[in-house]
């Protein structure tokens, strides 16, 4: 009830009036049953616009940090993410990654829509990067289709590091569902998982005509952080 109230009464109407989001390919989202919506990731706002623009309820796996803030700001952030269907996950790897996988499978097991960013993090420069194989494992274990989604101009409306969005129009392009039933029972094969993940990334690249680089986005971010640190002036005592 809280989700629908925020979507259609509190948050949704305001965001739609200000940003006038458009959508192409709405019919490609299954009317019922579980599915994974695999999206490129340009901005923090991606996780807001997509759930608000589709008719069905959906959930995104979001960093647990967004749910642990203190004070009024922390409470407001937590309520906002809950209202837009975000689920807290720990991205530290190891057992945390397994727990995140189980959280996603739980959503799919209930016959709902699950939003995932295959490259694992926001693109630092608008490029589409190599996908993580967790999405393939979820798709094969849950036996659900994967729907490619391209967010358009969200990076211009709310770039990385900017707290308040700029007023501008954003768009969403929904591609045709990808069927991986031919790999049923092969979710334990890492070569199959990589093949499925790469197929998803190719579909995203073709749908959005986004520049692609076959390296993990997290690796690029680490390189940029190292370069910035090297350029930073050192303090003299």
TrEMBL record:
Keyword NADP: no
UniProt lineage: Bacteria, Bacillati, Actinomycetota, Actinomycetes, Micrococcales
InterPro entries: Plipid/glycerol_acylTrfase
A GO molecular-function annotation: 1-acylglycerol-3-phosphate O-acyltransferase activity
UniProt cross-references to SUPFAM superfamilies, sorted A to Z: Glycerol-3-phosphate (1)-acyltransferase
Coiled coil: none
Domain Phospholipid/glycerol acyltransferase, chain residue ranges per copy: 35-154
Organism the protein comes from: Microbacterium enclense
UniProt name for this protein: 1-acyl-sn-glycerol-3-phosphate acyltransferase
